Amino acid sequence: MAAPLFTLSLLLILCTLATATPPGLILTVVNNCPFTIWPAIQPNAGHPALERGGFALSTLTHRSFPAPSGHWARTGCSYAHGRFSCATGDCGGRLECDGHGGAAPATLAQFSLHHGHADFSSYGVSLVDGFNLPMTVTPHEGKGQCPVVGCRADLLSTCPHALQVRGPPHGAVVGCKSGCAAFGTDELCCRNHYNSPQTCRASSYSEFFKHACPATFTYAHDSPSLMHECSAPRELKVIFCH
């Protein structure tokens, strides 16, 4: 049976769930940012969206629910002219993403739950699709290798000009794109000839993210060792703006 896999980002929208999650493992999303964020969840095909796929989370609050497989968080969301939209991580103008994915750039938390002989839950943080908020993942009451991982740095203030995403109302930097999103080349996107561990390489753009946050994935075939396996954790806590 395939293990459940999910992703979490500042938009907190991307969650994939391959199998039903056994009872007991809780995902807690914490918003330490000085503004509201809009987490979102995207399940694998054939599985219902948890928490209706997305919700608002006010500053200095948290929300707990049975662990899904992936999340990210949206920022700069508003209603205008009868439509809901977000500056980063938008999922087609929906508050409740209902299984739809979010737009890059967005910081992602990736999980593969309940696999192996010791009930492992694997987790990591990815900047492959860019960055919109600082994020860490902390397992609680697990056994074995259970480090805190993620990106605590605010990369919006140092994002290279070519990667910047600016939003209303005053053109502030709201996201930092990947090299792939900015330029779309096969080499930067690890497509076609470059879609293998042998030909997909780090670039100067992925190295910007890696230098600031070395324990994150920064390009498509980055080291698998960045995913950590923790045996039987009771809770996975995803913290934005730690």
Automatic annotation (TrEMBL):
<feature type="disulfide bond">
    <location>
        <begin position="91"/>
        <end position="97"/>
    </location>
</feature>
<protein>
    <submittedName>
        <fullName>Osmotin-like protein</fullName>
    </submittedName>
</protein>
<feature type="disulfide bond">
    <location>
        <begin position="33"/>
        <end position="241"/>
    </location>
</feature>
<feature type="disulfide bond">
    <location>
        <begin position="190"/>
        <end position="200"/>
    </location>
</feature>
<feature type="disulfide bond">
    <location>
        <begin position="180"/>
        <end position="189"/>
    </location>
</feature>
<dbReference type="InterPro" id="IPR017949">
    <property type="entry name" value="Thaumatin_CS"/>
</dbReference>
<keyword id="KW-1015">Disulfide bond</keyword>
<keyword id="KW-0732">Signal</keyword>
<feature type="disulfide bond">
    <location>
        <begin position="159"/>
        <end position="176"/>
    </location>
</feature>
<feature type="disulfide bond">
    <location>
        <begin position="146"/>
        <end position="230"/>
    </location>
</feature>
<feature type="signal peptide">
    <location>
        <begin position="1"/>
        <end position="20"/>
    </location>
</feature>
<dbReference type="Pfam" id="PF00314">
    <property type="entry name" value="Thaumatin"/>
</dbReference>
<feature type="disulfide bond">
    <location>
        <begin position="151"/>
        <end position="213"/>
    </location>
</feature>
<dbReference type="InterPro" id="IPR001938">
    <property type="entry name" value="Thaumatin"/>
</dbReference>
<dbReference type="InterPro" id="IPR037176">
    <property type="entry name" value="Osmotin/thaumatin-like_sf"/>
</dbReference>
<feature type="disulfide bond">
    <location>
        <begin position="77"/>
        <end position="86"/>
    </location>
</feature>
